Amino acid sequence: MVCATKWPGLRIELLAPAWNLVSSQAALRSCASSHAACGRLSHVICAGDHLLKVRELMSLRSSSVGDARLEDSPQRRPLIELADLTKTFFMGEVQVHALRGVFLRIHKGELISIMGPSGSGKSTLMNIIGCLDQPTSGRYILDGQDISRLKDDALAEIRNRKIGFVFQNYNLLARTSALDNVELPLVYAGVRNRRRKARAALEEVGLADRLDHRPSELSGGQQQRVAIARALVNDPDIILADEPTGNLDSKSGREIVAIMQQLNREKGLTVVFVTHDRSIALHTERIIHLIDGQITDEELVAEPIGVTIETAV
Ligand SMILES: Nc1ncnc2c1ncn2[C@@H]1O[C@H](COP(=O)(O)OP(=O)(O)OP(=O)(O)O)[C@@H](O)[C@H]1O
Ligand SMILES: [Mg+2]
User: Fold this and answer.
1) Relative to the alpha carbon of 90, which ligand is closest?
2) Over the stretch 103-128, which tens digit does the pLDDT of each residue have?
3) CB burial class (10 A; 0-12, 13-18, 19+) of residue 92?
4) Would you say residue 294 lies in a domain?
5) Which of 44-58, 117-131, 196-210, 279-293 is predicted least confidently?
6) 179 and 72, same structural domain?
7) Separation of alpha carbons 113 and 295, rounded Å
């Protein structure tokens, strides 16, 4: 707050942990530098115009999420808002603190990645964002609704309506065609015109000519595309992908990223994916770094690497 009066128009951005709110890179750079000068940020790195990296965001958090929300206009309200989120697993006598106070805001239409060492809590975070699991404490507001304490049934309903998942191991049914795999969520949801919708989703990921192939008759990259089609078929708002390129060679990995970018750009889907590969993360607009259950760093990628399915080769 020390510098807020100098930049009244940027007060929310300075207080909020979500740097994507800031109206321009130049504005953020000047404010961050100023905060650094005031001792609020100890370290600001600007690497040309391409990458702005702000360290020690933790010092800015100051549990101000509530204040910032009050000042958000409806258009700027985050789609996903996590405030002081924790997750503790109880293994007999032992407690595992998988998430230890996560603050994160994600806006509609963002394409972001999460990076961090093994065991840092990435999958735990994705599972909570995706309503597969509940936090131990803290708040999770999804599209304006506090869902932190909802029961399983209510969470499942939100998950089916809003969220599509993609996993590292594809999780396809082995003896079932691509078309039937993609149709499955529609069967559970009792939706009509299933064939047509499943076919359209497979066409969207470039697999119109592989509808009847079983997973064993497809490459890894193609299997992951089937998994993306399955995630898309219910028309979700958010795609969550936990290391979608982890099992793939670099060319197939780029193809998957190209599809994610295309879905984000053309359908306005909010896409969050976990990756260990920095060269993959640089295709997204923002990189969240998670260490030991906490967000330690965020990077804005001013010019995410663009890739199309044709250029992914
Ligand atoms: N169901 C569970 N029960 C107990 N501990 C768990 C459970 N799920 C995760 N953990 C623990 O929580 C911590 C975070 O796990 P998580 O799977 O979220 O890490 P990760 O960042 O996704 O790792 P990786 O990169 O290896 O996938 C780890 O110490 C893990 O052992
Ligand atoms: Mg994981």
Assistant:
1) 1
2) 999 999 999 999 999 999 999 999 99
3) exposed
4) yes
5) 44-58
6) no
7) 12
- Going by pLDDT thresholds of 50, 70 and 90, the confidence category of residue 68 is very low
pLDDT at residue 34 greater than cutoff 80: no
**Residue of 105, 155, 92 lying closest to 128 (CA atoms):** 155
Taking CA atoms only, the protein residue closest to ligand 1 atom 3 is 89
- Say whether 307 sits in a helix, a strand or coil: coil
Structural domain span for residue 24:
1-77
Q: Are β-strands 294-301 and 286-291 bridged in parallel, bridged antiparallel, or unpaired?
A: antiparallel
- Of 63, 133, 66, 64, nearest to 98 by C-alpha is 133
Q: The whole model's pTM is what?
A: 0.79
**Whether 5 and 65 share a structural domain:** yes
* Ligand 1 atom 25: residue of nearest CA: 118
Question: Would you say the CB of residue 275 lies under 6 angstroms from ligand 1?
Answer: no
Q: Which of 87, 120, 129, 133 to mutate for ligand 1's pocket (most ligand atoms within 8 Å of CB)?
A: 120
In a domain, 171, yes or no: yes
For the chain, the domain total comes to: 2
Q: What is the 3-state secondary structure (H, E, C) of 187-220?
A: HHHCCCCHHHHHHHHHHHCCCHHHCCCCHHHCCH
Nearest atom (ligand 1) to Cα of 87: 12
Q: β-pairing, 80-91 with 94-106? A: antiparallel
